[in-house]
Amino acid sequence: MEALVLERKDELSMREIHLEEHLGARDVRIALRRVGVCGSDVHYYVHGGIGPFLVKEPMVLGHEASGEVVEIGSAVDTLAVGDRVCMEPGVPDPHSRPTRLGKYNLDPAIRFWATPPVHGVLRPTVVHPADFTFKLPQSVSYAAGAMVEPLATGVYAATKAQIQPGEVALVTGAGTIGLVTVLAALAAGCSKVIVSDVQEPKLELARQFGAVTAVNIRSQDLAQVVNRQTDGWGVDIVFEASGNDRAAAQVFDHICPGGRVVLIGMPGAPIAYDVLAAQVKEARVDHVFRYAHIYPRVVAMLASGSIDVAPLITATYDFADSIEAFDYARSAPPTAIKVQIQMP
Amino acid sequence: MEALVLERKDELSMREIHLEEHLGARDVRIALRRVGVCGSDVHYYVHGGIGPFLVKEPMVLGHEASGEVVEIGSAVDTLAVGDRVCMEPGVPDPHSRPTRLGKYNLDPAIRFWATPPVHGVLRPTVVHPADFTFKLPQSVSYAAGAMVEPLATGVYAATKAQIQPGEVALVTGAGTIGLVTVLAALAAGCSKVIVSDVQEPKLELARQFGAVTAVNIRSQDLAQVVNRQTDGWGVDIVFEASGNDRAAAQVFDHICPGGRVVLIGMPGAPIAYDVLAAQVKEARVDHVFRYAHIYPRVVAMLASGSIDVAPLITATYDFADSIEAFDYARSAPPTAIKVQIQMP
Amino acid sequence: MEALVLERKDELSMREIHLEEHLGARDVRIALRRVGVCGSDVHYYVHGGIGPFLVKEPMVLGHEASGEVVEIGSAVDTLAVGDRVCMEPGVPDPHSRPTRLGKYNLDPAIRFWATPPVHGVLRPTVVHPADFTFKLPQSVSYAAGAMVEPLATGVYAATKAQIQPGEVALVTGAGTIGLVTVLAALAAGCSKVIVSDVQEPKLELARQFGAVTAVNIRSQDLAQVVNRQTDGWGVDIVFEASGNDRAAAQVFDHICPGGRVVLIGMPGAPIAYDVLAAQVKEARVDHVFRYAHIYPRVVAMLASGSIDVAPLITATYDFADSIEAFDYARSAPPTAIKVQIQMP
Amino acid sequence: MEALVLERKDELSMREIHLEEHLGARDVRIALRRVGVCGSDVHYYVHGGIGPFLVKEPMVLGHEASGEVVEIGSAVDTLAVGDRVCMEPGVPDPHSRPTRLGKYNLDPAIRFWATPPVHGVLRPTVVHPADFTFKLPQSVSYAAGAMVEPLATGVYAATKAQIQPGEVALVTGAGTIGLVTVLAALAAGCSKVIVSDVQEPKLELARQFGAVTAVNIRSQDLAQVVNRQTDGWGVDIVFEASGNDRAAAQVFDHICPGGRVVLIGMPGAPIAYDVLAAQVKEARVDHVFRYAHIYPRVVAMLASGSIDVAPLITATYDFADSIEAFDYARSAPPTAIKVQIQMP
After folding, report:
1. Of A298, B338, C125, C344, which is most buried, counting CB atoms within 10 Å of its CB?
2. Hey, which chains touch D, using 3+ CB pairs under 8 Å?
3. In angstroms, what CA-CA distances link D237 with A103, D56, D119, D171?
4. CA of D275: how far to CAs of A248, A267, A280, D250, D278, in Å?
5. Whole-model pTM?
6. CA distance A2 to chain C (A)
7. Element (H, E) at D59
8. Does any CB of chain A come closer than 8 Å to the CB of residue D25?
C-alpha cells in the first residue's frame, strides 16, 4: 500500500510498502480518514530517533488518527462496518502486570504506532484491536476525531490533578499540549486558567477559550500575574506543559499551600527541583505518561461540546502532500498548532 | 429594626424587632441587598420546626443572602466598607474538633441563620464574621450573590463526587437543589447529565442548561434512558437530590461498576438500602451536610461564567412584600424555582 | 478423578468424576494440598443454591485452596514445577470492560470455583491460569496458604477503608470474615479494634489478637463501649461483617464526624438506612465484592508475620473424611471458625 | 526560671531567664518532665541559625517534650491538673487560611518552640494551648511521650503515603527520622521495609524492628536488593529521609510502576530530578512539612504497642547536664539516635 515512509533521518518518501495485515478475531480493519502530525513524528524526521527509540528501518509515520471501519473480526460485537472511529495508538500486552492493574500505559511492552519498530498510520488502512477503537458520534468530525489523541493527554492530566470545581490552574507552555491542557482544565471545572508562553500567536489563541489569562513571560512577570489573579494565595494546580527546565523548576513558586503539580512536559535533562519549596507547601506532584482509559470520556466531551478543538487545527494537507505537511510542521511557525493530513 | 418575623407556625409579620448587634474585631456589618427564600424557611413557616429544631420564640427568617459592607471590625483586613459580598449562614465554634480538622460543617455547635434559636437576615443589617463573608466581583449581581448559598450545596456535592472530566451523571430530583446540582455537575466536567423529576416545567428548565437529558418518570422509564445514554454501562455518578425514598432506594440500579453515589436529599425516614446491589458494583456512597470551604470557588465560577444561575430566579419581591413572597413560595407552583426578596 | 461432589441439596458423595483438564499455554496444573470449607460451600450443601446460583448438576465443592505446581504451560515463566502456591478461585474474562479497568472482581462473567456451573477443587488436581496462581514462600504453610482466600476479603476491606495509622475501627460480627477483618485492620495500622458478636468463644479468640476490645452485645451496650474507647468521638471506621440487618442499620451511630463504613456482610434483604444520620457525619460508605489484586499482598503479610492465621484453623480433616468435615461445619458449633481438608 | 539558653552560635548556658507566662482561658501550664534533643536544636547550637531563622537573641532550646499539667485555664475541660501529657511544639494562627482549611502546619505564622524568636522548653514550666496538649495514658512513659514529636514526622509521612496493607517500602536514611519512618511504615501496614544508610550501628538497630532489610550502601547495591526483594517489580513507596541529594535524585529508580515517593529529608540545595524517569512510572511525589492532626493517633499507637520507641532512646542526661548532652549529640557518634534530658 501507499504510505508516508520515513526512510531515515531527514528523508521522507511517499511510496508503496508491504505491511502484514492479519485480521484477528478481536480486531477491526480501518480505512484512515484523518491523521494529525505530532511533534514526535517531526522529531523522528529531524533527528532520526527519540531517546532510545532509533529509526533503523524505514517506518511509516503518524499516530493521531480517525477512520472508518471496513471489516470486523469474528468476535467483535461493539463495532460494525461503516462506523466512524478514532483509535488509541498504543496497544499493551494484555497479560503484563501493569495492564492487569488497569495501568496499561505503564506496560513497557506497549506497541505504539510510529515508534520504532512499529509502523504508523499515514497509509490507507490499518488493522487494530476493537478494544482500542472508539466510535465517533455523528456530531464529531473526522478532524476532531484525529484530535482525540493529543486532547487525551490534556484530559488525562486534568484527571490526575483531581480538579475541584472552581479551582484556578496555571498551564506553563502554550504549544499543542499546553493548549489542550488549558481546554481540558476549563472543561474539568477550573474557574480560571492562567497560561504562559513566549509566542504571542499561541497566547492569543488561548485567550479565545474563555476564562483564560494568557501571559507572555517575555514582557510580563508570571509570579505577579499569579498573585494578582489569586489574591496572593497561589494557584491550586500547575500543569507544566512546556518541557522547559526553568519553567519546571519554578512550579512551586506559583502554587498555594497544599497545591498540586502535574508534570506533562518532558525536559531533556534532569531539572533543578527545590525540595524545600515543595515541602513548605506540601505540594503533591503527579506525572503522566501518555494516558489510559480516557478515550471514551474525551469523545464524550467533544460530542457534548464541552471542548471544541476546531481552533487548534491550523492547517490541513492532502495525503499526497504529506511531505509538504511535514516540512511545514518542521518549520514551526508560531501560528501553527496542529497540522493534519486528509486521507484519500 | 424592621424584619420578617416568624411569630409561630403559620404566622409571619413584618415588624420591628430588637437584635443585639455587637461588632467584634473580626466582624463586619452588612446591609442586606438580596435574600432568597429557601425550602427550609418555608418549612418553618408551614410546620413550625424541622426535626429537633422547633420555633419556640419569634425568629427572623432568611439565610441565602448578599449585601454591602457598611462597617468593619478593627482586625479585618480582607474587606472594606462598600464591598459587595455574600455570606455563609453558618458560623462554627472555631475550637471544636471538627472545625480544627477543616470540617466545620460537621460541628454540632454551628450557629446557622434562621435555625432556632438563631435569627435570619430578612432585615436591614447583620453583623457577621469577616471569615465567613466573601467579596463579590463586579460581574456577579446581588441576585446571583444570594444564590451562592443553594449553589454551594450543588458544587459541594460535585466536589465530593470527585468527577473525572467526561463522566456521565444522573441527578434524581429537579427542585432547586437538583437543578443547582445539574449546573454544578456540568461545570465540574460531566459530559452529560441525566435529570429526573415528575414536574415538566422543572425538566424543561433543565433542558436549557446544555448537555442535559431530562426524564419525566411519570411517562418515561429512567432505567431505559440510563441504559441508552450509557450503552448499557450505567452512569458514573448518581446525585440523589429528591429526598424521595423510592428514588434513594434505586440509586444502585443506575450506576456502572465502580460507580459513586452522593446522597443530598433528606428522606423523612430510613430508606430501603440494597446492600447486595451496592456490593456487586462496589459502589461508593458519600453524604453531604451543607458545605464547607466552598464559597470562594462558587463565587469564582459565577464570575467566570461557568455557571449561570439567572434562569433559576423565577420571582422577585420587594422586602415590603415578603409575606406575599412566602405565601407564593408556600403554594409551590411547578414553575417556581427560586423566589428572592429585594432588600431596601 | 476422586472428588467431593454435591449431587444435590443435602447430598454429598466422594466419587469419581470426569473433569476436562486442558492445560493452556498460560496455565499451570496444581496438585491440591489443603482446601478450606467456606460458608458458601456449606450453604450450597444445605440450601442447594445461593440467590440466583442454583445447583442443577452435580458440582465439586471447595474454593479456598493451596497446592503444588505439577505441570506448566508453554508460556508460563513465573512459576515452576514444584512451586508451593495458592490460587484465586475467580477467573474473569480478560476482555471485559471491568477487567480492563483493573476491577476484574466486578466482571459479571467471572468464573468462580464451586459457584454453579463451575466445579470447585476438592479433588486431586486442577488446571488454573498462572496469572491467578501465587507462589508461597517456604515460611507460609499450605494450611495458611488455603487461608489466603478468606483473609483476602478482610485485607481488601481494610484497603478500601484507607486506614490511617493509629485509627480506631469497629468490626461488627466475629465469624470468619469478621475475625480476618480484625486481623487485617490491626495489620493495616489500626491502633485499636473493637469487635462485637453474640458468641463468646469467637470474642474470646479475637481478644488474643492484640489491641482488641471484644464486646458481647448480649450483655454489653456497644454504643457505650465505643464512646468510652474513643472519648465520645466515635470510631474512624466501621466494618460491618455480620450481615445482620440491625447491625448494618446502626453503623452510623458508631462513627465519628467524617468517619467511614465498609459493608462486607451480605444481609438477606434491604436494610433500613438512616440517610440523615449518615449526612450529619458526612459518612463515606464503601462496599466490597470479593477482592482484586490482593493475593500478593496477603501472601507477603503472612510471610512477614504481620498476620498469623493459625488460631483461626480450628479443625482439619483428611480428604477421605470430607463429608464428615462438611457435616461438622454444618452444625456450626460456636468454637468452630475454619474447617480445612488435608488433601492426599 | 532556670533554662538551657543558647546565647549565640557555639555558646550554651544553664541560667536564669525571665519568661512571660500568662495563662489564657484555653491554656494549660505544664511542668516539663522529659525533653528530647533534636537535630535542629543541635544545628542552632553549631550554626546559629537554620536557613532564614537566625538566633539574634538568647533562646531557650528544646521542642520534643512531655510533662505534667499543673494549672488549667478557665475554659479548659479536656485536661486536668495532674494529667501526664505531650505537646505539639507548633501553634498556628487559628484564623489563617491554611489553619481553617485544616492544614495548620502550612500556616506561615505558626509559632514553633525553639525556632527564633520563640523560646523552647528546656526549662521547668511552660504555658501552652490545651488544644495542642495531649494526654498520655498510663502505659506511655514520659520518655516515650517526648518521642511523639519525632515519631509524628514518620507517622505523618506514612499517612501521606496512603499505604495499602502488605505493600513494600524503601526508607533511604537511618537517622532518627529514617528510623521512626521505618517503624511507622511497618505499623501502618507494610509487609516489608528496606532501609539504607552508611552507618552500620543504625542499620543494626533497624534490623531489630521486624520485617526489615537493612542495606549498607557502602558495601551493597541498593538497586539489586530492591530488585531481589520485589521480584524485579520495585517498591510501592520510597520515603526519602536522608536529605542526601544523591539519594533524593535516585528515588524513581526504586519504585514500581504507579509507585509513590514521600520526600521527608531536606537537602541543602535543589536536587537533580529526572522528570522522564518519574513519568514512565507515573510516580506520585508527596512532600511533608512537620505534621498536622497526628498526635492523638501517635499516642494511640504507642499505647497499643504497635510502635515501641524505647530502642531509639540511646542516652539520657539530667537537666543539670544539658550542655554535656548537647555536646554529646553534637559529636554524633553512629551509635547515638535520640538523646533525651530528664527534667527535675
Report:
1. A298
2. A, B, C
3. 17, 41, 37, 8
4. 9, 7, 21, 11, 5
5. 0.97
6. 33
7. strand D59-60
8. no
Using CA atoms, how far residue A332 sits from A38, A182, A338, D301, D315, in Å, is 12, 21, 10, 60, 67
What's at B149, amino acid-wise? E
Dihedral (CA of A140, B224, A132, A81) sign: negative
Residue D68, all three cell numbers: 505534667
Output the DSSP codes for D226-267: HHHHTTTS-EEEEEE-S--HHHHHTHHHHEEEEEEEEE-S--
Closest to B87 (Cα-Cα) out of B41, B49, B31, B45? B31
In our burial notation (b when 16+ CB lie closer than 10 A, e otherwise), range C178-199 reads bbbbbbbbbbbbbbbbbbbbeb
Contact A278 D271 (CB under 8 A): no
What is the band of A244 on the pLDDT scale with cuts at 50, 70, 90?
A: very high
Question: What band does C336 get if pLDDT is binned at 50, 70 and 90?
Answer: very high
Quickly name the fold that domain A2-147+309-342 has: Quinone Oxidoreductase; Chain A, domain 1 (3.90.180)
CA distances from D61 to D22, D89, D317 (A): 20, 12, 15
Would you call D44 helix, strand, or coil by DSSP?
A: helix
CA–CA separation, C120 vs D292, rounded Å? 50
Chains near B (3 or more Cβ pairs under 8 Å)? A, C, D
Instruction: Give D119-170 pLDDT, tens digit per residue.
Output: 999 999 999 999 999 999 999 999 999 999 999 999 999 999 999 999 999 9
pLDDT tens digits, A332-343: 999 999 999 999
One-letter amino acid identity for C107? D
Contact assignment for A26 to C95 by CB distance below 8 Å = yes
pLDDT score, position D60 = 98
User: Helices D200-207 and D176-187 meet at what angle, rounded to 10?
Assistant: 20
How long a stretch of residues is chain D? 344
Q: Give the residues of chain B that fall short of pLDDT 50.
A: none
Whether residue D103 contacts residue A258, with contact meaning beta carbons closer than 8 Å, is answered with yes
For residue D219, give every residue at least 6 positions away whose Cβ sits within 8 Å of its Cβ, in sequence order, or none: none
| pLDDT band at residue D232 using 50, 70 and 90 as cut-offs | very high
**Superfamily for D154-287?**
NAD(P)-binding Rossmann-like Domain (3.40.50.720)
Single-letter residue type at A17: I
Nearest 5 degrees, angle CA D1-CA D131-CA D34? 40
**Fold equal for D2-147+309-342 and D154-287:** no
Q: Choose among C243, C240, C238, C274: nearest CA to C259.
A: C238
pLDDT per position as a tens digit, D44-62: 999 999 988 999 999 999 9
The domains of chain A are located at 2-147+309-342, 154-287
D282 to A272: CB separation less than 8 angstroms, yes or no: no
- Give residue C52's pLDDT band: very low, low, confident or very high (50, 70, 90): confident
Interface check for B163 against chain A (CB to CB < 8 A): the answer is yes
Residue C51 has a pLDDT of 85
CA distance B304 to chain A (A): 6
Give the position of cell 499451570: C28
pLDDT digits (tens, 9 = 90+) for D172-189: 999 999 999 999 999 999
* pLDDT at A20 exceeding the cut of 90: no
Q: Which chain D residues are Cβ-neighbours of A97 within 8 angstroms?
A: 233, 257
Give the C-alpha distances (Å, rounded to integers) separating C244 from C43, C181, C207, C336: 17, 16, 22, 19
Residue C266 clears pLDDT 90, i.e. is over it? yes
In the predicted model, what is the mean pLDDT of residues A102-115? 97
Does residue D21 register a pLDDT over 90?
no
Tell me which residue in A26, A95, A101 faces C102 most closely, judged by beta carbons. Answer: A101
Chain A residue with the nearest C-alpha to that of D262: A284
CA neighbor of D301 nearest in space, from C213, C166, C234, C183 = C166
**Whole-complex ipTM:** 0.96
